[in-house]
Design brief:
Layout lengths: L1 E6 L9 E5 L4 E7 L7 E6 L4 E9 L5 E6 L2 E10 L5 E5 L3 E6 L4 E6 L2 E11 L2 E8 L5 H16 L21
Antiparallel strand pairs: 1-2, 1-12, 2-3, 3-4, 4-5, 5-6, 6-7, 7-8, 8-9, 9-10, 10-11, 11-12
């Protein structure tokens, strides 16, 4: 099992995010931007080769994201429901994401098999998200999914509550 560390509050920002291993060595670089349909984040290994990417594809019925690995689409992530907790599903991979998304404590499963679990940790050099991935070949996809979860957490559309009041003056024009 490998651990990957991502500095807290960097994952969903429009910035370069360095992903490190448990020894503190830089393994991946996540670059790109979010916000509109068609925006993408790309995950590069430190030798410069693209290993995975995420593309935002829909706003119509909630955000959906396509996940690519080595230039090939491997899945589409979408939110299924959010009560009593958030539940996300990645088509094609048959992976589910569930847990406490708000506190960055969640897991990714393929049926009963754990693909990743995420927690937060504090070190002398800062606060980090810790991704534990049993199979290193899944790490690029898991890092991309963590970026999407972070984006959704910090960029939720706040529901505007409308209050209708009966402030109509029916006397105008009706005399």
């Amino acid at each position: 099992m490998s651990e990957f560390l991502i500095q807290e509050n960097q994952l969903s920002k429009v910035t370069r995010t360095v992903v490190k291993n448990e020894q503190g060595h830089s393994i991946y670089l996540l670059v790109g931007r979010w916000g509109t349909k068609g925006d993408a984040l790309s995950l590069y290994s430190m030798n410069g080769s693209l290993v995975a990417s995420i593309k935002q594809i829909s706003f119509t019925f909630g955000n959906r994201f396509e996940i690519y690995e080595n230039y090939e689409k491997v899945g589409t992530l979408q939110k299924i429901f959010n009560w009593p907790g958030d539940f996300y599903y990645i088509n094609q991979l048959n992976w589910s994401v569930h847990g406490d998304i708000y506190h960055h404590k969640y897991k990714i499963h393929h049926f009963n098999k754990e693909i990743m679990h995420m927690n937060k940790a504090s070190f002398a050099f800062g606060d980090y998200y810790v991704l534990n991935v049993p199979n290193d070949t899944n790490a690029p996809k898991c890092i991309c999914i963590a970026a999407i979860m972070d984006y959704w957490l910090y960029n939720r559309n706040r529901q505007t509550s409308f209050s209708f009041s009966n402030n109509l003056d029916w006397s105008d024009g009706f005399n």
